Amino acid sequence: MWSASVLAVYAAALFQGAVSTPIHPHHPHQFPSTEQWPAPVVGKPLEQQLPGEELQDILSQVSRDNIEATIRKLASFGTRHTLSSQTDPNRGIGAARTWLTARFQEAADASEGRMTVDWNSFIKYPGDNERIIFPVNITTVVATLKGSEDPDRLYVTGGHYDSRNSDPIDYQGDAPGAVDDASGVAVSLELARIFAHYKPRSTIVFTAFAVASNAWTEMTVRLIYRLDRYSRGGDHRPFLEAGYTGVRFVQPNEDYTQQHQNVTVRNGKQYGDLVEWLDFEYNTRAAKVVASTMWSLANAPGVPTNVGINTTASDNFSQFRWTAPEGLPVQGYEILYRETNEAHWTNVIDVGNVTWYNLTSATIHKDNVIFGVRSVAEGGYKSPAVLPFPFGCSRNC
Question: Does domain 62-299 have CATH number 3.40.630.10?
Fold first, then answer.
């Protein structure tokens, strides 16, 4: 109660002061005019960018039937547990891996040599992880579509093809893993099939990861600033831990009776990760979101580097500087900003093809908003925005 009362008193004092004229009867300074708030817009409101002709063509090819068929096929292997059979032609992770490799290779065969398919394999030994109870070969299937202009810059998409049930070391019982994560692998495979016919400027890698479960658009997308569900680990986590940006697309409300569960009926309720739980239209829309993201990033320039903002000057200006990215040519740069309580960028300032900029707005400046700088390429493709770090320099740095 005391804290609330104090806050109320201060708030009242603040509002009383805002409508008074001089600060002190004999003091020449006055409060800033309320006409300056809300702050005037600098630049222009950020508008949604519609997909270009090539991306529209890609999105039109995403097949619900293909995605469903892949999920059903992966679930048909019974289990894809990391420790399950690697030699049985019909059941286990080995059979699933062989089938996936053949499907990725079919996509590569249509790419005129731009896509290659490889295995990334290693031996995992007991002791490294409590869920590995004997030495096992772990293989990720990798389909790489080489970029036409900046092949050394890679964007990776994928899902994990291993599965599990209630017991994390039960490698013999059924674990169809339809949702977790045959659905993610199906998206990766479908996009590999489509993208193989195109020439992205940067490299795109389509993967079917192993050992995720057993070791560690017409939709609304909500960004959650958290690594993963509590007590969980996703396929994107190793990328984040290695210093790369990683994002996981996941449904907002998970049903845990349908995930990491033995296939059984208890008290009249079906448990287990079964195909019947899938919404294939949802999967198809998710595939289009991923396709749009990968194509847009792969054709955009790299992010500007060494992005900084001068915080030593005692003024209302915002002085930026940055270094041009290597790789794809840059047509110009944009400074984005948003209010400090906004989750998304709201406004954009086109600053041209320069590597420094002095924003002289008295209301939109470094103390009041969050800024970001991004690169822009021919065709309007834009890199992710980079937040500036403080630096000190002369006014025209």
Answer: yes
